[in-house]
Each structure stands twice: as structure tokens, then as C-alpha cells.
Records
---
Amino acid sequence: MANQGLLKELIQSLCCLPGVGPKSAQRMAFHLLLRNREGARQLGRLLEKAVAEIGYCRDCRTLTEAEICEVCANPLRENDTLCIVESAADVWVVDQATTFKGKYFVLHGRLSPLDGIGPDQLGFDLLEQRMASGTLKEIILATNSTVEGQATAHFIGEVAAKHGIQATRIAHGVPMGGELEFIDSGTLSAAFNGRREL
Amino acid sequence: MANQGLLKELIQSLCCLPGVGPKSAQRMAFHLLLRNREGARQLGRLLEKAVAEIGYCRDCRTLTEAEICEVCANPLRENDTLCIVESAADVWVVDQATTFKGKYFVLHGRLSPLDGIGPDQLGFDLLEQRMASGTLKEIILATNSTVEGQATAHFIGEVAAKHGIQATRIAHGVPMGGELEFIDSGTLSAAFNGRREL
Ligand SMILES: [Zn+2]
Ligand SMILES: [Zn+2]
């Protein structure tokens, strides 16, 4: 039908959200314009601000608008234990579910040679610097318990061993093949406490 | 856990989208920031632009960034037939499913006294002006076939009769209790063609 130029553009653009197809995008656009313009204005502003200001923590690679994220900058968190996770979302999940008081390192992925994802893409240079610095006593490998997550954990465990650092893997309370992000707090907490040396 | 101030704000703001809870909002935020920053930037810009520029058509009340929408401004569309719909989305649905070549009028709702929605909220003053102008021969009532949609159609039909304008109701090919937006094109087209005088 006719134009509705800007409205059509907005609907198309909403389809860039994961899980949103043309039909839900249309519903979202109408909802925002007819019932929540203030929410739409704020969301627009925050999206632009987030893209402009949110980068990666210099120490742990998580998403943050600061040079160093709040966990890394927090003097109350222990420097000798490092929890390795696949995604920035996993930092939140682990921190909410457990009593872990150390720091994190975010891979933003897992080793996957077939997809061209090797150590370089996962910040291993930064991770090895950290291992070489002499402050680390334990590395907790909290990558997903998928085949690739397991392989990544083993690879990092071997590097840690070379630096004389203890590497532990979160216990298999986590269902095999499962992804950390979708697991309930209780199971995850148990898995965390039941971790054993790799 | 720690701050992630701007990221948390963004996630909360994404929850203003219909059907989006905290968990999917988080997934959306991470997806945009890690994998589609250009899409996020564009969506942010379009949301702000849409809120600032999209208003209501002076003639038919649909959403448009122009003073008069493209359907109302189109000299090839007939001025003597007016299709009344509940929502701006219905304009698109009817226009895509049928061969209708007249114009539209968008109520943005339906009569619902219990919710305080009366003729004033649905633009009836504008609609009566249109009826009084002498250009209209037929009004097609394409409100939903819910109880309130039916009542709204009957109410408008009576006003039309006073102005000597023929009022038709789209046929009951549309399932009773169903909403226009979710009906397949074939059924809707049949209902449109099978319309009869109210
Ligand atoms: Zn950090
Ligand atoms: Zn119009």
C-alpha cells in the first residue's frame, strides 16, 4: 500500500532485534507510537548512547561504559581468583547465583576452529598476561558444558598449569549440553561450589 | 551485582516493548552491542525520529509523518467510499488483502463505555464533519467482529443513516470474536466483497 515511509523504516529496523519478525515489529511500532511515546523516545536515546559509550573492560573484556568495569575496579573483590566465562551475560548469571568474590574474564565465545574462532579471537593474549603477572592462584573455568565449552576449558587449564596456577572446572551439576544462561540459580550455585581441580 | 549502569538502563528500557520481559531484553541488549551496533544505532535514531515526526493524518487519523497521509492525498483513490477501522494496522491489512480503492478512517479503538471510551475518544466529530460534507456515498464498517466492534459499527451506521449515507458491514466471513489483524487475506477479502447493507 501507500508509503508510511518513516513508519515502515521503523518497523524494518525493529526486525534487527533477535526473535522479532515483521509481524511483532509492526505491533511494537504501533504500540510505542500509540501508547508509549515517552518509552520509545527513551529507548531511542539509550540505544544511541549505549552504542556510543559502551565498550569492553580493559581487564576482563566485559561490556561497560567505563575503562575498567565495576567488578574489576572493586577493591573488595579478590585478585587471586579468576572466573572464565563465555559471555558477558554469564558474568551476571554467576554473580547473582553464587557467592563468588573474585574477578571475571569474558571470552566472548569459545574455541571453534571450524568457525575460525581461535585463541586470538577470545583474548587469550590478555589472559596469559594476567597468568604471567603472578597474582593468580586459581582459575575457575565456567565455560558452558557443550563440547566446545569443554574443549575451551581444557585448553585454558593446560595454559594455567604451565604458569603453575590451579585450574578448576565448575561441577557437572550443569546438565551436559546445557548453556549457563538458561540454568536455575540453585543448580548453578551447587555446580560452582562443587567445582574440582581440572 | 556491580553497576553496568548504562547497560542496565538499556535492558530496562527494552522491556517497554510489548512481549519483551527482562530475560529477552537482556538477550537483545547483548546481541545488539556484541553483534549489531550499526543496527542498534539506526534503531535508536529511527525511534527518536518517529516519536518526533510521526503524528496523525488530519483527514483519517492514521499514523503518518505528513500532515495528510498518502492514501488521503492520493487523487486516484475514491472520495465517496470510506472504510472505518479500529486501528492503523487494520488500514494496512485491509489495503493488502482487498481491492478497496476508497479512503479510510481510523478510530484508534472501539466504543467501550466501561473503559470510558466514547465517541469523543474515537474522532466521531471529525467523522461527522466528513459525513456532513456531502461527498460520501457509502461507509464500510470494518471494525472487529467482537461485541464492542459490532456495537461501534451499529452506532456509526445509525449516524450515517441520519446523513442519508449507505452503511455496509463487512460480511461474517470473519470468525465471530476474531480480530481483523490476525485473519488471512482470503477470508478477509471474501468478507469484504460479501459486505451487505447494515
Ligand atoms: Zn572488568
Ligand atoms: Zn489519511
Note: DSSP finds eight helices and seven strands in chain A.
---
Amino acid sequence: MRILVINSNTTDSVTDRIGAAARAVASPGTEIEAVSAPFGLPLIVTRADWLVAGPATLAALAARRGTYDAAVIACFGDPGLDAAKELVDVPVLGISEAAFHAACMLGRRFGVVSFTAALRPMFEECLAHHGLTARCAGFRMGPPFAGDPGRVAEERLDLLAALCAESAEQDGAEAIILAGGPLAGIAPLLQPRVAVPLLDGTQAAVRLAEAMAGLMPRSPRPRRARALTGFAEDVASLYGRA
Amino acid sequence: MRILVINSNTTDSVTDRIGAAARAVASPGTEIEAVSAPFGLPLIVTRADWLVAGPATLAALAARRGTYDAAVIACFGDPGLDAAKELVDVPVLGISEAAFHAACMLGRRFGVVSFTAALRPMFEECLAHHGLTARCAGFRMGPPFAGDPGRVAEERLDLLAALCAESAEQDGAEAIILAGGPLAGIAPLLQPRVAVPLLDGTQAAVRLAEAMAGLMPRSPRPRRARALTGFAEDVASLYGRA
Amino acid sequence: MRILVINSNTTDSVTDRIGAAARAVASPGTEIEAVSAPFGLPLIVTRADWLVAGPATLAALAARRGTYDAAVIACFGDPGLDAAKELVDVPVLGISEAAFHAACMLGRRFGVVSFTAALRPMFEECLAHHGLTARCAGFRMGPPFAGDPGRVAEERLDLLAALCAESAEQDGAEAIILAGGPLAGIAPLLQPRVAVPLLDGTQAAVRLAEAMAGLMPRSPRPRRARALTGFAEDVASLYGRA
Amino acid sequence: MRILVINSNTTDSVTDRIGAAARAVASPGTEIEAVSAPFGLPLIVTRADWLVAGPATLAALAARRGTYDAAVIACFGDPGLDAAKELVDVPVLGISEAAFHAACMLGRRFGVVSFTAALRPMFEECLAHHGLTARCAGFRMGPPFAGDPGRVAEERLDLLAALCAESAEQDGAEAIILAGGPLAGIAPLLQPRVAVPLLDGTQAAVRLAEAMAGLMPRSPRPRRARALTGFAEDVASLYGRA
Amino acid sequence: MRILVINSNTTDSVTDRIGAAARAVASPGTEIEAVSAPFGLPLIVTRADWLVAGPATLAALAARRGTYDAAVIACFGDPGLDAAKELVDVPVLGISEAAFHAACMLGRRFGVVSFTAALRPMFEECLAHHGLTARCAGFRMGPPFAGDPGRVAEERLDLLAALCAESAEQDGAEAIILAGGPLAGIAPLLQPRVAVPLLDGTQAAVRLAEAMAGLMPRSPRPRRARALTGFAEDVASLYGRA
Amino acid sequence: MRILVINSNTTDSVTDRIGAAARAVASPGTEIEAVSAPFGLPLIVTRADWLVAGPATLAALAARRGTYDAAVIACFGDPGLDAAKELVDVPVLGISEAAFHAACMLGRRFGVVSFTAALRPMFEECLAHHGLTARCAGFRMGPPFAGDPGRVAEERLDLLAALCAESAEQDGAEAIILAGGPLAGIAPLLQPRVAVPLLDGTQAAVRLAEAMAGLMPRSPRPRRARALTGFAEDVASLYGRA
């Protein structure tokens, strides 16, 4: 099975990190291809960023059409996800979507931990969009952060462990989602210090994408070709299928 | 006051219809400019359509930046709305958003009437996104429709009157939203046959945009310029401000 | 256009303050008449107060019937609002209702700031009654206050600025409602110190009332005359129309 | 124990019917006094009616203050209930409130049955106000009714039995509330034809009022006297206590 | 009237405490029988505990079948409650269910106070199961507790009084539930120090069970006998009735 | 990987059917063991049935402890699921839980189709327990059924196809769950006649259990041994671990 993992921003170093996390949990027969968005922004923060990252993500999906059995949108907030589910004939999962559903299957209440409170509104909206607000035991976020996102996971490791403990002990979380791109891949480092299972969105998405690929009907859904103007050829091609 | 009204699809005849409805309710000193999306799709139906209509709508907003005091996104579903609120320094309202809020101010419970049940899922999701599901008394929709959308309002006028009566009498609606582009402008024709106020989204949006333009602080919010690639110059310019 | 602004309590100094705030945002052609409730209580605090303020508000609406194009109930909690919408043939808006809807049109998440936590339960219930709880990013309220309500805004200005900052930075509020009568009119003083738009309920209500007056059908709804006993002549007259 | 049962409208024949239903379930030592509102309207239908019935209900509570251990507001919609709970030192229950809570204690899902769909919006709002919407399996209401409310229960008995059967079999109701004044007292006639328990609001309220009278602290809550103008002496007296 | 009060765990000293609290509020003609679960666990903490306490509670109900007019399951979380309502022909109430409903009838918003935050998740889930989350003003819980549950009420009395004050003053609670077995019976000690009514779940359940016993139809519901294997004879007998 | 699939009732023919459905989608390296509950009831219908099926399901899990990498509770309603997640150190999934989560990952709105309306209340409660009510587009159920459950799938195949079409076309379902034991395994027969993906709960659970087995930490959670009395040795052993 081949799974395309798309980093919805244009920063290749993040893509590498995501790819490594994905490969660490993929089943033996699964091949991971991790790619960056072909255009857009180096970092996705606002709702406007989320919107423009959508076509960029679709472009990445379109460029490799036919070469993968499932796809993962590896950007918390899941840009382009709903559109991709409509336009692509294999399962497409977002990493926040996957983290939420996997957490629900591990326990009744999950916590969300991240390094800065600035991400909380986005996470809350994403959680509400997926309809799972009532399953969330609460958010535990660190203070404002102005340093290098690429090093925050290591620099704030003790803080994160403390936040996870609060989530489990005070909020009653039975599983904890480590949310936000800069925390990708640190679950194994933290797990020994935390009493409940930790979830990495990319890893949850890869495992669940493997699962869904075996449940979805194989025959492509028929669609009427439509003319989309003003977007890259790849994006338009998703609309142009016979 | 100048209000830019953007039809998020590329069909100019619809734009004309929307412009006429807007001018019919604008205050004396208000000037309406109605424009089509500069690229994208001739009709917005699916979630994928909604996503790609977002940057097209942003492009229209960017192209005329500085020439309007408020803007209206005249496409049920409000593509690009959340991003526009972040990127533009004057009030931007969507027509579904405006219809929902105006209906709430007319009564405790509003109904939604449209000509075909196929639109119901999109309307329900839009309503949930705006957080007002609990204020809705119910949907009353006609059967599947395969004819000319440009003529459905007139062809199904009796059906619409009957659906409005059901909404008011059986669901307890105290105001009714006539939803969906093809019904733009028919409220005056139907109102004499309906016991509760009817709302046209474009018209609600124009009046509310006038209102909001007087409430929002005038000084532009400071933003850090960022480089957006892969989109039309106009869209990128919204990110590039000093 | 003439707008009747009713202070639902009997304290004329508050009425003056409300009237000034209303005039500051009214459109050029709009004339504001601000009146106190003709009877009732000098301050509305409890649910019982709210109930008895309802007929007092209706009496004020009835006494000037035919002289206004829209009305505003200028008392947080909106006493008599639902009844007024039924009994009066022009748009009637409450200031909390108006603040909530206007805030939603400014951003996805709004905060509520006030000078004392004692008001929080009332605000929460009012918000829930209007169905917009999910759009609220949170409440930020000051400690108990036992001084002169007429001076609290000025005395606690620094505290209010700090609460607004918390609302924007920690809760992610994109617009902030300054709630509670004693804060009427201080938004302009605070706005320079706050990064997101501030909303004054009375001002939001005046602008939205102007908007709604242009959307509601002009012909009065037919009603059957009914005999109401035990209330002032004015209130009974609302029931007695042919 | 003495329980005051207040019919919030001024129609004495309805008061008699309510009193009889109340006495049929009161415990041996309980004495029921049933009274009509001293002023107001002969029938409560709209939200405006509900508002003006509030002070009328308070007046009845005030007129007999000190003579009862608990009170019941016997009007579906519970006018004046929240205010009465604040102003009166013994338990005050509304009949819709009581019906909803009692139904919840009989099963997980309750149905609501009434003779005409015109009452559905009011019942839905009342249910939402009490926060129990999620426990309701659905409404089953008859067609519009223009006859004599005093005879509808008997005339539509077969219809009501059929609606109860639908509620139990199709909606999964495990208890059914017979809602609306005109159905008071018919539960015993219908019960033999229905497979699940039927609830009469007045009767539920009387039993629950007896229960609550034994749970509430006896010492009156201290209140500051306040001057209420424009209302009957009795109502003002509720505010004037030392 | 006879009421069977079942402690769902096997600890007789707790059963004695529960029985005393029940008798303190029972009506003159009511006889209380308090029994421990015949098997199971000495303490109910987790969801697994809750599950296995269900058949143990059913066994206690079955063993005395025919000797009581109503029953109370005296274990916060209400194990076996939904099943008991189906299998037993008299009213069966849980103490958390009773506390929630009674609190709602005392005021619009109730608080929940307990001695340790460790119980909060269970209480929240129980509250959500009963559908009354929106009526709860908030939880106020003490820090972790590792001492003797039998003495915590007395040891933490000052803390509990402080938590009750916070609940009333900051959260706006109008009634407060003292939750958790170890707090059974301490309401009278705390009430003089708290401005709003305190509720003990067992006592609420006894009063409400008396009330419901007068509302439920007397004739047993017909059931088809079914063969249940692997459980104690008493439990199976609930399935075996003709 | 070995997955234990437990039919929570005692009917072996159903167990065989479930086992076949499970094996049809299991990954190449996965071995399925399907077992019946060792005691309990031949069919699970009511909430009481659900309760007693819980310990029976735990007994099956305990009897084979150490021989499986993940487990599936194959009974709609998921009896014993929350307890099993606490007591067992490998992932345990319920088939309704799995169907709901998988459906969410296939589209924004899922429908639920089954052969008889009698199952609707149970499905609705199960859906609410998992917190996903808002993702459900609606239920489409057949009329009462009194025949042989083992043959209903085949007898009502045309009806089911029609219900699926209604779910997709009128409710906007983007994936459909075929709910209820008697429909296990018929998805492949119906899929060619339905435009959106069909989901079988057992099959979804097997795929998702494979996924979760790769995400959960391997080291068993430490638990304190506790003495459970009155249950089969196997069940008690789950409590007795060091």
C-alpha cells in the first residue's frame, strides 16, 4: 500500500520530520511518500492561511493522482480535507481528524496538549468542526512562545510533561493528543513520563488511512467534468475527470 | 458609503440579479458595486467548489481594495468569508450569515425555504458553522429540480408559497429565509402570500453591512507582510501589506 | 428615521448616558428619542427584576406608538423583548441581542468583558437564550464591586483594559462586548488600548435597528383584539388593536 | 402540608379542573388551594401573554403569602416561575418543569403529545429553557383545532390514543407527557389504552412540590427591601420585605 | 410506603450512613430499608466498577421484590439504574439523578461540590448522561485526597464551606449538590455556612421516590419471560417473570 | 496480529456470520478468532440486556487474555466497552463505535439504515454516548418486523436499497452505516445499488483495531489488584492482576 503524506505548507524540513514520523508506524507493506505543498505559505497559522493552503494541498494530491492508495493531510486544521474527500477516489485523512477519532477509541475523554495557548482557538474550532467537542476533557497549553518552532519540543519537554500530567490527573484525560506541527514525533520521548497513551496526529492518520483503504469501495465515483479557471493545472484536473 | 457585492461564481447574469436586489434596499447614500468572481466556477455547489471559490472571492476583494467601505459575499455558504474578515480592514458579510442573524432579530424561530432538497445539507452545515442551529424551526424544501435555475423561482412560485405556509404554521417560523441563489429577489413577489416576514440574504447583508460599517474601528489593524506563492497577484497582495 | 431607545429602569441619569451613546453612532438622518421606563425599578439585577421590567418596557413602547420606525430596549438582558417583537409592528431590538449578533459578524469568536463577576450568570443565560453560546470565546470579569456603578467604568479602566487583553490573547476573542449598563459609552476610551474591535450594546442596537427597519414588511400584521386587565392603559392598548 | 395551585389565567372553570386533578394525587395530609390569576388574560398563548401572566401569577403568590408550604404554577410554559423561585421562600414548581423532570425519572426518553401542532413551538421553547431537549423522543401533535378547548380532550380521545401509540412505538418514548391545559385530567382515561406511563403536569407538580418542601431549608433567605412602582400592591409587597 | 435504599457497594458502614440520611427526610408514613449489594466491590470508582455494580444492584432489587413501593440506588453514578427502570415495576431512582433534578427545581443553575477533583470526570459523565449539563454552573472540587474516606467530610469541612461559597458567589449557583458517598449526611452541618440550599443525593432521592410512587400506574407492565444464564438466581428471576 | 471478535450474545450462528465478515476485510497477517459470550442472553435488545451482556463480554475477554493483540465487541450498542478499555491492555473496539468513527472519516455526514424502526432509540442513544450525533444526517428505518432475524437482510433487500437511496439523496448522507446484527455481511450485496460507501460495523472495527494496535503503548498499565465477588472467575481475574 502506498500512502501520500502532504505537508500543507512549503517548508521541506517540516516535511522530512513528518515523513519520518509516518514511516515509524506504517505497517510492513506500506510505502510512505511525504511531499510539501507545491506553493502557498511556509507556515499555516490563520484562517486565511488555512483557506489558501487548501488549493495547495489539492495540487499536491492531483500531481500524484493514481500513485497512492490513501492520503494524509499533515497539517493541524486539515486544510482542503472536505474538498479532497469529494474530489479524490481514495481515502484522504487529516491529522487532526485522525487524532480526534483515534483518541476517542482509546478512552472516553481525551486531552489536548500543546506548547502555546495561541493555538487553542484554532484547535477548538477544528475540534468543533469534527463534532467531537464533547469528548474533549480540556486543553492544557503553554505560555506564549516566540522562539524557533523547530526547537520548541525539546526546549519545552519538561513543561509538556507537566501539562500532560495535569491533563490526566485534573481533567481526567484517558488519552492525550500532542497537537501542533512542532510537536510531531516527540510522543516517544514523552510517553515514558506520562501515565496515559499519547497520540501523534500524523501517526494516527497513517494507521487509520491504512484501515480505511480496506473499507472503501474500489470503483471510482462517477463525476461530471467541470471547467475550473484561475488555478494551477493540477487543481483544475481534479475537476476535469470524465 | 460604497459596498462591494461579490458574486463568488463567474456567471455575470447572476451578478446582475444580485446587484439589483442589493440596490433595492440600500440606503439613499449607499452605492452598490456588484462584481463576479474573476475566475473559478460558473456555479458553486459542493464543498470543493466552496473551497476554490474562496481565493476567487479574495481576488475580487483585493482587486478593488480601498474603494469600498464594506463588502458582501453574495453566495450562499459564504466562501472565503472567514479569511476575508481577517485580511480586509472593512466589514465583510456573507449572505447566509446575514440572513441568519437578521432572521434571529425578527423572531425567536426562523424557517428556511428553498426549491430543492438537494441544497439542504449545505444549508445545514452553513447554519451550524454560524452556530445558530438552535434558532432554526426547520427546513422546507421542494423536490429534486433538473430545470433551468434561472427560471425555477417563477416556475415554482406556488410551491414556494405552500412551503412558506408550512414553515409558518407547522414549524412555527416567525421569519423565513428564502435560501439559494436562484431565489434572489423573489421575496417581494411572495411576501403578499406569506404571513411572516421573508428574508433575502443579499438584501439582509447589504443593510447589515451598512450597519457594521458604522461600528468597526476605522484604523487598519497592523499586519506582518508574508509571502504567498501560487496565487494571483491580487490575492497575494492581501498578504503583502506593510 | 426615528428610533425609540428605552432604558428599562427608572433612572434618568442612565437614560441620558444611553441616549448620548445612541446618538454618537446613529446615521445622519436618524433621530433618537431616549426614555426611561415609566414605572418599575431603578436598577435591573435579578430574574424577578427582569420580569417586572418587561411590562414597564412595553408601557414605554405603547405610550409612543406610531412615532418611531424602530425601537431599542437598552437594558442588558433584554426585558420584554420577545413580547415586544410580537406586539409592535416595527423592529424592536435588545442591546444584548444586538451586541451578540454584531460581534458574530466581526469575527468567529467574541469575548465578553465586564467589571464584576456578579453579572456573569445573567450574561450567560442571556447568551444561551439567544442561542449563541458556541460563538463565545469566554467571559473575563472583574472582582466584586460595591461602589457607585456610575463611576465604575472610569475607576476600573485599567482593569478593563487588562481583561480585554486577556480575552483577545488567551481566549482568542476577535471582538469584545463591553457588557453591563455602567460600561455604556466607554468603548471609545478603551479601544486605543485593545487590539480587537470593542462593541457597545446600545450602539450596536441602534445601527442594527436602522438596518432592520429597511428589511421588515411595512404592512402591520393583523391581530385579534384581546382584553388584558390589571395593567396600565398603555400596556393594555397593545392588546386592544383592531 | 398546604400547596397553593395557581392557574395563571383568569378562567375559573379551568382553575376548577386543575384543582380536581391536583387533589386526585395529593398525599393524605396535603391540602390543595387552587386559585385563578387575579388579573391578566383568560387564555395564555403567545410569548407576550406569557410575560404579562408573570406579574399576575406573582400577585396570586403574594396575596396568600404565609399560608402555603409550596406552590404550583399551573400553566404550561411556567409564567413567572424563575421570578417566583427568587421572591418566595417556599418551593415553587411549574407544571411543565415538573412534567419534564418526572418524565425523566420514569425513563430515558419521554414523548410529548398534544391535540394541536400550534402548541409545539411553545412546548419546544419551554423544554429548551429547562435544558432537557435531549431527553425528549419527539412531539406528536394533532391537526389545527378551532373548536371549544374545554371539549377537545373528549372529542379527540381516539386521536390522542393514536398519537401516544406512535410516540411509544415509533419514537421510543418510555413515558408520555400530555401537554396543554385542555388535556388536564384526562390521563386516567387514556392510560388503559397506552403501554407506557402517562404524565399530567399538574399532578406531577403537586407530588414533586410535596417532595421539595421536605428538602429546602426552612429559614427564609434575607433580602434587601426595594421599591417597585406601577404594579399591584401584592406584587410590590414581594419586593418590600425586610 | 416502603422504600428500598440500595448501597451498590458491599461496605455495610456506608450503608448505615446512607440509611440514616434517608430516614432523616422520609415522610411520616414511609419506612426505609437500607441494604448493601450482595456481592461486587467494596468501593465503586471506575467505569468497570460501575458496570459490575449493576448486576449486584439488580440482585438486591430482585431479592426483595414485592416488599417495596419504590427503590433508591444510593451510589453516585447510578449503577444499574436504566436496567432497573426496565425490569422493576415500581419507581427506581438514582441518587445522582435525583440530586440533579431536585437542584433544577430549586434554581436555574446548580453547582457541584466535592472533596477531590478525582471524582470530577465521573460526575461530569453522569451529568451528561442525564442530559442536564447545561443547567450546571460549574464544579468546585478539593485537591487529591489519600486519607480515610469515612473521615474526609469532617476533616475538610472548612474547605467544603469555602468551595460552596465560590460556587454560589463566582459561578452563580442557586443550589449546590454535595456529591460523592463520603459526603452523605453532612449537608445539615454545612447549610448554616452556605447562602444557597445544599442537596444530599440520598435525601433528594427518597423524597422524589415518594413523589413518583404516587404518579406511576400500578398495574405491572407485561413482559415476556427470557432465560438469562451466568448470573445469580435473583438477577435471572427479574427476566423470568410471566 | 490476532484479533478476538466477541459476539456479546450466546447465539453461535450469529458468531459464525460475524467471524466471516471479519475475515473478509482482515489484513493478510491478521488472524481472527470469533467467540460467543460464555453466558447471558441469546439476543441483546433492551438496556437491561445491554447491562448483563457487559460482564458476559468481559468474561470472554478474560478467558483468552494474552492471546490477542486487539479485540472487537461485535454487538451494536457496544456492551462492556468502557469497562473493557479500562481492564484490558490491548485496544478494544465496539462495532458501533467503529462504524461511527469510520463513517466520519469517509464524509461529513453519515446516514444510519436498518430494517426496523424498533432499533432506532437504541442506535440514537449509542450515537449520543459516542458524542457524534451532530455528524449523523438521519436515520432511515423499515417498518416493524416480526419474522426471522436471520433472513431479514435477504427478505428486505429491496427495502434496504430504497432506504439507502433516501439517506443519500434526501438526507445528504455521504456514507451509510448498515446497523443491527441481522444486517452483518450484506454490505457487498447492497453496495452496487447504492451511490455512497456502505459500512459494516464488524468490518470497520476489525480494520480500525488493526490500526489502533500499532498506536497504543505496549507496556501494560499498572493496576492495583482488587477483590471482585459474585462473578465468574474469568471476570474477577481482570480485577486481580498485580
Note: The mean pLDDT of chain F is 93.
